[in-house]
# Entry
Amino acid sequence: MERILQWWKNYRFSISDPPIISMEGLYPLLLLLVLSLVAVFFHLVRILFNAPVDFSMDWNLFLSWIPLMAAFFINNITRRFGRLPFLVITVSLFWLAFFPNAPYMITDLAHLSVDYQRDLTWHDTIMLFCYAEVSLFNGLVSLYWIHQTWIRVFNKKTSTTLLLLSLPLAGFGVYLGRVRRMNSWDILHDPRLILENLFQSMLDRTALVISLEIGLLLGMLYLVLWAIVRFRVRYGKREG
# Structure
């Protein structure tokens, strides 16, 4: 933190200074923003069907952007200023509190009503899938950025342990939100209720199932993302 404050105090703009935020980092954000707008467009079309207006999906999509922006911030800060363990730990805890909001929207598919004779049924299917897909993309990209930060700041064993722990914890967060009807803000608003639900959920089989299955799903998808990114990096080096 002292390095950041010292840099800010003595900062003099120069065209040769390396940027804190590069287009390489902004490009995924812009792409995810476009995908988010597509999801919102589907919702606007639904409103044109004179269907009941429900903005909970838009709110949940917004919440999936919070861990994404937190990971984007700390990844760029550590790339520019080096290892900042205290700041990384603080932002990582904040990220973990909101990370479950990304896979949470998968469970919104449970609200889908099936009536094969209604056009709205098919529109809702595509719309809910689009929201869940974009939200999941946000979560996976944020996981990649925060993982890169952990690798940069901690050793490989520690970063891998944090990654593996974050996956079932995200699933447990989905359980708290869907079954216990809690949200990330309750950590600040009512921490006592969070602790009560944590103890009560330890013996709940549903909590175990959701935690493991959501964690497994995130793990498989992240492994695919990691493999694609690493292949692209290595292939690009060979071409160069």
